[in-house]
Amino acid sequence: MPTCKECKFITPSPTGDPRKGVCLVERMQLAETQKTNVAIRGKLVKKDQEACEKFEKGESWKDISELL
Amino acid sequence: MQHDIGIVTHIQKFALNDGPGIRTVVFLKGCRMNCEWCHNPEGKKHFPEIFHFWPNCVDCGKCIRACPVEGAMESISREPLYPEEKGFRGKLGSKIIKIHKDKCLNCFQCAEVCEYGALVASGEIRSADEIVDEVARDKSFFAESGGGMTLSGGEPSAQPEFALALLRAAKERGINTALDTCGYQSYDKLSSLLDYTDYVLYDIKNMDEEAHIRQTGVSNKIILENLKKIITRDDVTTYVRLPVLPNVNDSEENVRKTGEFVQSLGLKDVYLLPFHPFAGQSYRLIGMDYPFPIGDSYPEEKANNIKEILESYGLNVSLWMAWIPNEEAENKTA
Amino acid sequence: MPITERTARLKERCRFKHVAGGEYVDPAVKAGVERARYVTEAHRKSIGQPKAIVRAKGLENILKKMTIHIQEDELIVGANTEHPSYFPMYPELSYFSTIDMADSQYCTEKEEMKAIAEYWRPYCIQSRCEQYFTEEELDIMYSATTVQPPMFVTAFSSIVPNYETVLEDGLNKRIEIIEANIEEANKSLRSSPWNASENLPLLHQIDQWKAMIIADKAVIAWAQRYSRLAKIIAENFESDSERKKELLEISDICRRVPAEPPTGFWDAMQSKWFTYLLCHSIERYSSGYGHKEDKVLWPFYQRSVIDKTHQPMTRDQAQEIVECERLKVSEHGSTKGRQLREFFAGSNDLFILTLGGVNSDGSDGCNDCTDVILDAAESIVTTEPSIAFRWNEKGRVETKQRVFNCIKKGFGFPSIKNDELNTEQLMKYFNVPEEIARDWALVLCMSPGVTGRRGTQKTRSEGGSDIYPAKCLEVALNDGFDSFFTGMQLGPRTGNGRDFTSIDQVWEALKTQLRFGIELSLRSKDIGRVMEAKFLCCPFISSIDDGCVEKGMDANDLAEIPNPWHNLIGGSVVVIDSIAAIQKLVFDDKKYTMTQLMDALDANWEGYEEMRLDFWNAPKFGNDDDYVDAVAKRFYDLVADEWKRNITYSGTYPLPLAQSVAGYIVNGPKTAASANGRKGGEALDDGGCSPYMGCDKKGPTAVLNSVAKIDASRHKGILLNQRLSPVLMNSDVGFDLWHAYMKAWHDKGLDHVQFNVISTEDMKSAQKEPEKYTDMIVRVAGYSARFIDLARYSQDTIIARTQHEESVAGA
Q1: pLDDT in tens, B83-129
Q2: The whole model's pTM is what?
Q3: With left for phi above 0 and alpha for psi between -120 and 50, is residue A42 left, alpha or beta?
Q4: Which residues in chain B touch residue A36, judged by CB atoms under 8 angstroms apart?
Q5: Is A31 touching C (CB cutoff 8 A)?
Q6: Which of B39, B70, C595, C664 is within CB 3.0–4.6 Å of B279 for a Cys-Cys bond?
Q7: Taking a C-beta distance cutoff of 8 angstroms, is the pair C174, C257 a contact?
């Protein structure tokens, strides 16, 4: 099974601790009252843990426009 | 004391094209004319009204339940999208609320329960002191820019006592004042306002009386006569403003007549306000019809043409918001 | 348009180092291994020697062996790495940063770098500091949720180098002064009778002085290498006779500076650039471009451009040199870990130079050199370095007109700081004499610090590092626990919001969480400072500070003029709007209970949309509304009071500094739903006191009136973003109106303001066709970035800032 480290939704070392990363896969469209469009729900993960069902192979920095 | 109370639609801060400098514009509700192009439809009637900002409506039904009159509101099928609706990210349901104006009591209970900003009361009764308190919060901006308070509308002189109270209260606090008027009012009443006014922004809509009646519902006689009298007062500075509307008042003949008239009065500065399409949006967003095409601004070339014609009468003509800074403001920023 | 064909060519081939989404945009950017290699090599050889000497030998080895290069067309030469596309690495600081970098796509010498990282593991500052913290404390700090990870793991620092001593004395004279001190000390050691308490401290001082001399000599030798290289190219490879002449002149300049004081403007710029490289990037890494550039360069500008007595040149030639400087900065590779690269979305590093204000005698500080620097910024169009303008009542209008011109073009800089307010603050809180205080420059984006020959800030352990207030409020309502992002206990147990029966309990819980955060952060900074002073001595940086030379102390160690501050990053206004909404809807109107609110927040407002709208429509900061503005005042006062309880390394308490960098973007996804009607994962407020996006409905004057209710004098700075309409700014009266607005801003005693002047339509077009908008610059936070380098989420937050238009009604 792949780990979070290999997933494109993980930013590699957002915290200074390279063993951890932030998963940015979960996002939602915001209500019409809000001025921005999207909320991204971050999740702190250990990079060597087993990836979830939303796993997509890739490196966040290559497709960063989808991230922050 | 009751004259210190009046009805306003809203207060606009940081207004830059209703007189020199940074200004706060107080929009008084109610007008005695009925111009077909009016940019402030919410300013026309003399009483508070309910407006349905329908792109925000999610058909939650709360307003219908709150309405005390049977049959004044109902849920109907949504109209096809207007172009301007695309800018809104509403959850557009298939249904929408309709208000039957003939039955509506204007009690505003629907607006009170609407969480989505779809039903909005326009027009609030407020005291002059309270309003000028709010205006005075921007005093330092007025002082630095040569700005102040502008009364607009609607037509401010349609609530003459209230307008007077506002102007007087502003002057008492050392705030520069401007009156944006169509001039359709008895000279005595206008003149009493001018005692507390620094700048008059005076609209000339059409030189032809018949056309004026057709387009605004009233004759221009009193308007032109009033202007002649106003300019005899040396305690106010008068700026003439010409709304320029396609096929309404933009014929060369009318422009030349206007130029001649302004020149004959010895006035120097004229401000052109070419038609812009924003008003059409507000009309449709509040469910009213608007007789001008959607989305087209007045052609720049034609506006420049008109500018040139007027300049041939020795006038300084300014387009849009390029407000010519007065010397006072210039000295302050130097 | 660049002022000459040369700078147009230089810009065309500039190897920009800005990042997008936390990664460098230019695929050629790589981690250079030479600095790390040579500092390690020297460390192995000298490890038994005094620490300052070990560090000096490290610097000496780097400067002696690192590959140097001069590029075509360059007038200013010198770089921090072996290749213009590279950035250096600093294994002596943070193990995590080094190993992360070694593991990244940027590092091609992976095996060597990993071995270097492992070599340094026991010696690096991170390992030396971590032992003073519990696992839980480290986890909290490293999660970057309520507080920024400490300097000893991010490796991030900041400094204001003493350019003045290099330019006034030259390094040869510095060496003479230091040698005299050693001689004096040796005499004292041999004086009769023996006095231990006087003499024993001299041993440490002698070590420091000797290290300084090694460093200064190494720097002079390094500049000589550039001199020789320029000559070699000129004599052997260059066929163009004009360029040949230039290269020989460059050779002559590098032969003389920084060993000797500069003669004219070109010399001065070169000497300043060498000094910059050493202090910010070679001896150790430090962010910033802190100097009062117009003041530092003015004497040389006068000689070259006005009097034409030394290195005579035209004004345009001076502008060309400043353009070259801006391109050198743009090409300069800074090394930051992932977290900080994301934090500076769209930029390379925080390069902010300072202009304007007053001279030390109180006269207007704007001069023609100020104007040339602004003209160059306007002509070359680069995001970096950013400029801060000190707005003083005395500042001349022609300079302010240039400030306006840059802003009008949409650069987002100069950002504007209140000159008098910031000078007074240095005097009042840090006891700086007025004539010294008047020479302040921004250390980083927002924080003033003194400049000059001594006492300038040398490390971020003095001032800097962050607390994230929105997250503090979130855990304050949840018994200190974070179930949204980390699943960790992030702070003290302050109870469950459901049990709160008054708004004061909310305030109390927030205060407790902020207190925990600031105390943990200050401890990490000060412990880091002690370790920096012991193990990360900076003999070159010390050698150019008169105080360090006089006292024989390392620059990290000496705190001659304290400058402590601690940031509140993105989220202050979310806290204010949230507390105001809770106060109004729960405790005043009693429309909802705390239990209902907590349920709605836990559900991320799902199924509570009408309730969310109620909270969203509650009074919002930025509308000149006394109800919520009173909450704002209380919040900023509370923070100032809390910070004030502490005494830091330099003997006094820190001031708060509310700003955002790109923290409002990065921390949005880490922060759960909030009571201002914001959903979990939505961006935070984008300044230090900027209204939440879309919540300022009454225009820019109301925003200033709201901000004016905060007592800015108790803060190191408070960042305010404003968006003004390009139509307004470009109209005939644009300058007059803006100038009037700025004077009102100044009269109200506000600290800061910066502007975005790009229309919503243009930004939306740039999202669709980025290739057509490569030069579009926007203000992100304390710095500017190219719009197209920002990710969608960040772009949207900038579009979402309320654009203040001229009124269209009332015609």
Answers
A1: 445 444 445 556 778 888 888 888 899 998 988 888 888 899 999 99
A2: 0.92
A3: beta
A4: none
A5: yes
A6: B39
A7: no
